[in-house]
Amino acid sequence: MVKTKRKEKLYLSDKQPLSFMGVIMLILSYIVLGLWALAIILPLIDMIVSAFNGRQQQYIMLNSNFEFSLRHFDYLFNETLYFSWVKNTIFIALTTAVLTLIIVSFTGFAYSRYRFKGRKPSLMAIMLIQTIPAFAGITAYYTMHSVISSIAPFFSRQMMLILIYAGGGIASNTFILKGYIDSISTELDDAARMDGCSSMQVYRLIIMPIARPMLAIIALWSFIGPFMDYLLPRVLLTSPESYTLAAGLFTLINDFRTLNQPAFAAGGLLTAVPIVALFIVLQKQLVSGLSQGSVKG
Amino acid sequence: MGKYSELLYDDIGTSYERKNKYLLELARLQKRLTQNDSQAAELIKKHKSNKKVHPYNVALKAFKKEEANFLKTLNAKKKVYSNEIKSKNDRKSLQMKVQLFDANEKIKFYEAYTNLSYEAKLAYEASKIISNQLPEIIETYEVNRNRLAEVNEQLKNVSGDAESKANASYNEYKSQQNANLKEQKIALKEKRRSRLISEKALKNGIVALKRTRKDELGQKKFESISYSLKEEKANLKFVLSKGIKRERNVLKSNISDLRRKTPIEIERTSPFVSKLTAVLPGLGQFLNKQYLKAILFTLATLFIYVIAIPYALGFGNYQGQGIAGLISLAEGGPKVAKSLIFMIEGIVAILLLVFAVSLFLLSYFDVRKVEKDLIKGTRQRNWFETITKIKQDGFPYLVSLPALMVIIFIVIVPIMTTILLSFTGMDPKHQSKFTWVGIDNYKLIATGTGLAGSVFWSILGWTLIWTLTATTLAILVGFLLAIIANNDRIKGKTFFRVVYLLPWAVPAFITIMFFSIMFSADGSITQLIEKIFRVHLEVKNDPFLARVTLILLQTWLGSSYVFLLSTGVLQAIPGDLYEAAQIDGATEWQKLKRITLPIVLFQTAPLLVGQYTFNFNNFSIIYLFNSGGPFNPSKYGNLAGTTDLLISYIYKLTMENQYQSIGAAITIVISAGLMIFAFIGFKNSKAFKEERL
């Protein structure tokens, strides 16, 4: 009887037992972590609640009562151009990702595997040009687009936007991919060449399959970019039909004619959910992709 | 007068005797001349005057005449021969046979002249290689082609009866194999259940079983006649196209090797062709007998003379006048003519000219190099060799071409436009037509005068304060949370990590806009504060409060990213470091200061620096939260608000109020600053220093 009681009191953890100060520190830690978690969650919960609250009118208020309703989603789908914004954003994001992948996979391969003239200076040059903010050339984009579209009418503003996104990502993505391909042993290339592979075949059959994880990260980043950006679509796209989500949703809180804050909350929620899910699932890969590109500065 | 050397050299420096006796003697005489031989000059003169009657030259002339005759008759013979065998052969084998015939004839003719000139020697030996290797290729080709015909014939005659029989037997075999597989799988699982093998062994075992089954089924399939014939047909077709092509490429590369080892002799001693043809890329290559290069450079010539130069002169422009438009900026032009278009077209014209000049230089140096090699004795590359070389060395350039085009179009042209624009007077009154104003815009900024310049310094001040405080605070909070959450004793880490990820994962524009709603005069947060503290805070109307709120909001947004980064690094720090410190008696604070901080900072430093530049240009948070407001016209004028950063100020100047030129000047100033900042950081970065070259 006595024996079992003793056994219960045995300290089994391989950590040192906590001192009194330690306990206080631990409690403090929990409090800090909890408070910050609350600070993050509360505004987001407010957004979710407002999106579903049928009592909210044009402006979101605190003290209004809650009544579950899909009214705001209904408004969003029927009274605004939400679906065409989603369509535009996905189109722009997909095309940007594909274009970036095609261009960057080649340049990353070339910069990693070949020692050609002007390699280092050009690398340096694109890294520096990269630091200039994207809209430094915005006045020119505007005029360039009007010139090109008057010659080639199919060249829409969205295409210009895609080109800007893809072009802006070339430098950093090339650098990230180059770093990744550098880590692939060149013996693989040599073996393939000995078996008669051409440069193109080495690229297609050896390098690309191995670099697929990094390519996926690059594609993902270029895909998410257009979802996050507000400035360029706002400047370049002129009609509400061609807006992306960011520019479109802003009209719901900025423009008095279309002002509807709960509908904005609903739209924001719908946009955020898939992206957040993606981030949570791919957390590790995204962060590692970030630190791989850390030289970007 | 040109000097001849006694020996010829190939591209790896091996020396060869001259076969041209006339040039050899000349070279020897010239050598005597350098040794101060008094007679040499006289002898050289004599030697030169006897050039036409020199025995070697006579022999060479005779050879050339005979060669011309021979080639003429050879052509006729080839025609006859090809007509003879045409009926029995398809295009490919006909071509190869005629080539073989040609080589055999050439061997007979050139054999006698191999000592006379290197040209004859090359022709002789190349023909010999062909006549050695080509018959085998032809045979392979014909054997395979005949077999293909047979297979095709057999395929037609496959009886349906045998087919269905084979199919039935295959299906039976398959079901038997499937049953086998099932049994073996169950046996394996049984083993696993009784803990004889590990989970991984079970998985691998199943994979292996499946593979065996697939292999055996694959073998069995070949019992069906039509299937095996079809497979054979595919194989034969592959050999006939790709296999034969590879064999012939081996033959060609053997000839290339021979060309590398056989020197060339020419009478030219200075590379004047490159100088004469410099203005017409392609012609020099043609004269050097490099026809592939000639075609490519002719395209360059077309580009230069049909596109680049006319465009620069103002032809084919959309509206502008080429380079001249850069100076005039549409001054005095019609009403529809826009200065900005003139400027952009001028920039495009300059880029085209730069491109044209580089093509000229490329062509000139290419021809010169080949010519110098020829004088030295190295043979020029032929079509096949050029293709191989382009495929090897040209590959990185070719595949980077799309990137280059996009960068020129999207980055270079717009940035050059912005640079030029900053020297003009484009403002609301001068939208379609403006003129050059020199450095006036920069003067306005530097002295802080004028409509736009007067607020520049105060905005810059706030921008710097904002960048430093908002970023530093975000980094501190993120890092602190990471350290706290990384404590072993904390439970529910996954929950905290997912929650802390949210501000980064939810698109920033959504959270910013929603916070903007919540902070408005009757938004939720304002009301909450009113309820608790009984004060009504008009955050959006009070400059100080707005600024503090923005900094806090950015902390909320930015700490998430820092948290994720530092957590990743923290988890990767090996535990023994801490254990060792513990044994040495280090306190928690010392461990943090000496181990954790240095490691985390070292690894995340470049990204943290990136956070500073990001916040410097953080347009969305300022513009979406309160459009740069609240406004304070007495201090900030009508354009800028009190929370405006330089970037949102530029946006307002250029996009909302059309002061493009001063906006461009500010853009250039901050871009230059950021670039210097990035250059220093990048130059010192590990990645760039450790670049293998």
Radius of gyration of chain B: 40 Å
CATH superfamily heading of the domain at 81-257 in chain A: MetI-like
Number of helices of chain A: 14
Distance between the termini of chain A: 67 Å
Mean pLDDT of chain B: 87
Taken as a percent bin, the fraction of beta residues of chain B is under 5%
Overall tally of domains of chain B: 4
| The CATH architecture of the domain at 81-257 in chain A | Orthogonal Bundle
Structure, described:
The complex is a heterodimer of chains A (297) and B (693). With 297 residues, chain A is mainly alpha-helical. Chain A has a domain at 81-257: MetI-like fold, CATH 1.10.3720. Chain A is 73% helix and 0% strand. Chain A is flat. Chains A and B meet through helix 2, helix 4, helix 5, helix 6 and helix 7 of A and helix 13, helix 14, helix 15, helix 18 and helix 19 of B.
List the helices and strands and how they pair.
The complex is a heterodimer of chains A (297) and B (693).
Chain A (H helix, E strand, L loop, with lengths): L1 H8 L10 H33 L18 H9 L2 H32 L5 H11 L8 H14 L5 H26 L3 H9 L4 H12 L1 H17 L2 H6 L8 H10 L6 H21 L1 H10 L5
Helix pairs in contact in A: 2-13, 3-13, 4-7, 4-10, 7-10, 8-9, 12-13
Chain B lengths: L6 E3 L5 E3 L3 H14 L5 H10 L5 H31 L5 H20 L7 H39 L3 H34 L5 H23 L3 H37 L10 H5 L6 H5 L3 H23 L10 H5 L10 H38 L6 H11 L1 H27 L18 H8 L2 H4 L2 H30 L7 H13 L2 H11 L5 H10 L9 H30 L2 H9 L4 H29 L2 H8 L6 H4 L9 H11 L3 H25 L1 H4 L4
Antiparallel strand pairs in B: 1-2
Helix pairs in contact in B: 1-2, 3-4, 4-5, 5-8, 6-7, 11-13, 13-15, 18-22, 18-24, 19-22, 20-25, 22-24, 27-28
Task: Provide key terms for this protein.
heterodimer; A: 297 residues; mainly alpha; MetI-like fold; 14 helices; B: 693 residues; 2 strands; 75% helix; extended
Condensed summary:
The complex is a heterodimer of chains A (297) and B (693). Chain A has helices at residues 2-9, 20-52, 71-79, 82-113, 119-129, 138-151, 157-182, 186-194, 199-210, 212-228, 231-236, 245-254, 261-281, 283-292.
